[in-house]
Amino acid sequence: MAIEYELKQPFKVGELDVKKIIIQRPKTKDFIAVGTIPLGSVAADTALLSSLSGFPESVITQIDIDDLSVLRYYVTRIWDSYFSSKPYIENPTIAEETPQNMITEKDTA
User: Fold this and answer.
1) What is the mean pLDDT of residues 67-96?
2) Mean pLDDT value across the chain
3) 51 near 82, Cβ under 8 Å?
4) Taking the chain, what is the end-to-end CA distance rounded to the nearest angstrom?
5) What pairs with residue 6 in β-bridges?
6) DSSP string covering 9-76, please?
7) Best CA proximity match to 30, nearest among 7, 13, 46
8) Bridge partner residues of 24 (DSSP)
9) C-alpha angle with apex 52: 24 to 7, nearest 5 degrees?
10) Dmax of the chain from CA atoms?
């Protein structure tokens, strides 16, 4: 399963139209991609989001700040599952956990 987020502010980078971000279930390589960037920073979240989505960081850095705030909420949940005993949950069941415009699920398997 993957999470699909429709951007509220789509954008173009060269010939690439970016309208949505699909975040794959995290793997070890995704955390390694962050390297020595300080955790909790926008740079660390950008590196992780780049690895999870397959978009280069040069594309991720063009995301509108309102869209990025929603995506960072999701990335924070991934970090939390990595650094705590909480399991990674792709499908939150508590409505309060998910911002109104946040995500829709897509099965990409």
Assistant:
1) 74
2) 83
3) no
4) 6
5) 20
6) EEEEETTEEEEEEEEEPP-HHHHHTTTTSPTTSHHHHHHHHHHHH---HHHHTTS-HHHHHHHHHHHH
7) 46
8) 2
9) 85
10) 42
Residue type, 4: E
pLDDT of 98 > 90? The answer is no
Site of tokens 């409505």: 95
Amino acid at 103: I
Residues 6+ apart with CB under 8 A from 73: 99, 102
Q: Looking at residue 96, what is its pLDDT?
A: 43
Name the pTM for this structure: 0.75
Q: How far is CA 31 from CA 28, 48, 51, in A?
A: 6, 7, 8
Distances (CA, A) of 52 to 31, 32, 37, 72: 9, 11, 16, 12
Sequence letter at residue 82:
Y
